[in-house]
TrEMBL record, chain A:
This is RSPH3 protein. InterPro entries: Radial_spoke_3 (IPR009290). Belongs to the flagellar radial spoke RSP3 family. Residues 140-189 form a coiled coil. It is found in: Cytoplasm, Cytoskeleton, Flagellum axoneme. It comes from Chaetops frenatus (Rufous rock-jumper). Residues 254-297 are annotated as: Disordered. It holds the Pfam family Radial_spoke_3. GO terms for cellular component: cilium. The gene is Rsph3. Keywords: Cell projection, Cilium, Coiled coil, Cytoplasm, Cytoskeleton, Flagellum, Phosphoprotein.
From TrEMBL, chain B:
It is a peripheral membrane protein. The gene is Rsph14. Coiled coil: none annotated. This is RSP14 protein. GO terms for biological process: intracellular protein transport; vesicle-mediated transport.
């Protein structure tokens, strides 16, 4: 839609909007006519015209020219005021920039470069030191390892030697001990070889070796025998004693008997009695002697 | 209009975060006073300026003579993380110079830094570990670290820290363990290092092998290494593609198989073929260590038998430009040819 039409439509809308409230007011009866009067709608236009929605329109146009650039401002030269004063710079009063700037530039660049060099040198120095140190540590470690290896080897060899030496000593000691034992055994054997027979002989002589039966007989049988023999003999002796006593009593009795009787019997009787008493012991002696060989058999 | 300022822009090298330096000799004392001021911004600016100054060894000397280290020690426990970070940075740069190192050791900064091991900020921890690393390169520094009882915490940190920091820890551990190894063994360092041997990063693998080397150069370290059965893993690392790893691995083996158990486990893990390969490569740095390891293995009867076949590899090593390699090759040939 071109600008014309748009503008036209807008104008139309505005007028419609402007008219609306008035018409509404009229219709609404809020405006009541004063008494005796009447509201009449009157056309107040100069010319009667048809009341229509359509408004008389007239189109008019206007167009600016194409946009032109703002023309350059005209040179404004203000009017000259003040007094004229001139200065003149002679030769050699101005400084020569190149020459003057040189020392400053030197200082600036020099300082910067010096700073940079310092930093680089610092780093380089450090790097050199570390690499030097690193080489040294490697060498040191290698040598140290070698040292430890040799130490270890040495230790092993020494231990081995020590062990073998101890073994050897042990061996010698055992050998010596065995030799001594053998010598001692040989000597002892020889010594004891004579010992046994002599011991046995001694023992035999001192009666330690006995025939048990013989011993038995000797220790038990014979004493028993002797005691029995003694008993038997005692019995015999007792018998004889009894006999003696019997004879004695008999003889005494007879004596008594014969003491009263005549004296001729007395002499015979005592002569008989001594002969009888002599004969009695002789008889007993003979009986004894006869008994003994019997028992000794 | 004439003004003293030539242009509206500030000159390009004024850093507003740095404190302005006083002239000449007065610079450092003034910075020292600023460091002790109660205001945070002053302290931070002084620290920034100090960081730049400390690259110069003469300034380090002057700083230590003025007693900067005490004020820096107090600043180590500051709440602000920038202050802590810059302080640790200053200390780590100081440790780059020999005077700085000695000053740090003498003034007991090591124990003060020990408190920063658990700092939440990564950069602080990194600088701390860098300082330890640089200090441990000196024998007195290593002694100081050992005396401060830092080895067990460092070993524990190995398990949890970031990779970069782990590398620094491994470096410092390697230097400290060269001196004494019992504390680290008590803290279970060998098992931690065994895990690190299979880490994806090359640097960590090679440094872990280096630490194991230092551990196994001591007698009790050797025993623990053999017991924890690190040797089979090391043998598998000998075939690693990155060049630094086999160098250090061969070094560990060189020390670890001095003991008889180590030797038998190495033979059991078939260490001979990869070691022979390392020896055969002309330009390998691992040659020296590999030759030494093979010398040790040649003392075993079965090792000798295997190596008699490869005798000419060693003969070729006699032409190596490095004198140490030649000597090692000589010894190796002598051991191989030895008859009981």
């Amino acid at each position: 839609p071109s600008t014309h039409e748009v503008k036209r439509q807008r104008r139309a809308q505005k007028q419609v909007l402007a008219r609306k409230p008035l018409e509404e007011q009229i219709r609404s009866e809020a405006l009541k006519p004063v008494e005796g009067r009447e509201h009449v709608s009157v056309q107040t236009e100069l010319y009667l015209e048809e009341i229509s929605d359509r408004i008389i329109e007239v189109d008019g146009e206007c167009q600016t020219d194409e946009f032109l650039d703002r023309p350059p401002t005209p040179l404004f030269i203000p009017a000259k005021t003040g007094r004229d004063v001139a200065t003149q710079i002679e030769e050699g009063e101005l400084f020569d920039f190149d020459i003057e700037v040189k020392p400053m530039l030197e200082v600036l660049v020099g300082k910067t470069v010096e700073q940079a060099l310092l930093e680089v040198m610092e780093e380089e120095e450090l790097a050199q030191l570390w690499s030097h140190q690193r080489a040294f540590t490697e060498l040191r470690n290698a040598e140290f390892a070698e040292l430890q290896r040799l130490e270890e080897q040495d230790r092993r060899i020494r231990e081995e030697k020590e062990r073998r030496r101890l073994e050897h000593l042990e061996k010698l000691r055992k050998q010596k001990e065995t030799a001594e034992k053998i010598a001692a055994r040989a000597f002892a054997q020889r010594y004891l070889a004579d010992l046994i027979p002599s011991v046995f002989n001694n023992l035999h002589d001192s009666g330690f070796f006995y025939d048990p039966i013989e011993r038995d007989i000797e220790t038990e049988f014979l004493p028993w025998l002797m005691s029995e023999v003694e008993e038997t003999l005692q019995k015999k002796v007792l018998g004889r004693t009894m006999l003696d006593s019997l004879i004695r009593t008999v003889v005494e009795k007879r004596l008594d008997e014969f003491s009263h009787p005549p004296p001729s019997d007395q002499t015979e009787a005592p002569a008989e009695e001594p002969r009888a008493t002599d004969a009695a012991p002789q008889v007993s002696g003979e009986a004894d002697a006869a008994d003994q060989p019997v028992t000794e058999e | 209009m004439a003004q003293p300022r030539i242009s509206a822009y500030l000159p390009p090298d004024i850093d507003p975060t740095k404190a302005p330096l006083a002239f000449g000799r007065r610079a450092l004392p003034k910075l020292n006073e600023e460091l002790q001021s109660p205001e945070l911004l002053t302290q931070q600016r002084a620290l920034m300026a100090l960081c730049d100054l400390v690259h110069d060894p003469e300034k380090v000397y002057q700083a230590i003579a003025l007693g900067f280290l005490d004020s820096l020690k107090t600043l180590l426990v500051h709440q602000d993380q920038t202050v802590r970070q810059k302080t640790t940075e200053v200390l780590s740069i100081m440790a780059l110079h020999s005077i700085g190192r000695q000053g740090l050791i003498r003034s007991g900064v090591i124990s003060a830094l020990a408190g920063l091991l658990d700092d939440p900020v990564d950069i602080c921890r990194k600088n701390t570990h860098q300082t330890f690393d640089l200090l441990a390169k000196l024998p007195e520094g290593a002694g100081g670290v050992l005396q401060a009882g830092l080895i067990p915490p460092l070993v524990l940190k190995l398990k949890t820290e970031l990779d970069e920091i782990q590398e620094l820890i491994l470096d410092s551990l390697s230097n400290c363990l060269r001196v004494e190894v019992s504390e680290a063994l008590a803290a279970g360092a060998v098992s931690v290092l065994k895990e690190k041997l299979s880490h994806p990063s090359t640097a960590i693998r090679s440094k872990a092998a280096w630490v194991l080397l230092e551990i196994s150069s001591h007698a009790e370290g050797k025993i623990v290494v053999c017991k924890e059965e690190v040797i089979p893993e090391l043998v598998s690392l000998l075939e690693d593609t990155q060049p630094e790893v086999p160098v250090n691995t061969a070094g560990v083996l060189m020390f670890a198989i001095i003991t008889p158990q180590g030797r038998s486990s190495a033979m059991g893990a078939e260490a001979v073929p990869p070691l022979l390969q390392l020896v055969a490569e002309e330009t390998s740095k691992a040659r020296l260590n590999a030759i030494k390891t093979l010398t040790l293995l040649a003392e075993l009867p079965e090792g000798r038998r295997t190596l008699l076949d490869h005798r000419d590899t060693f003969v070729r090593c006699l032409d190596d430009p490095s004198e140490a390699v030649q000597r090692a090759a000589d010894i190796a040939i002598a051991v191989i040819d030895w008859k009981p």
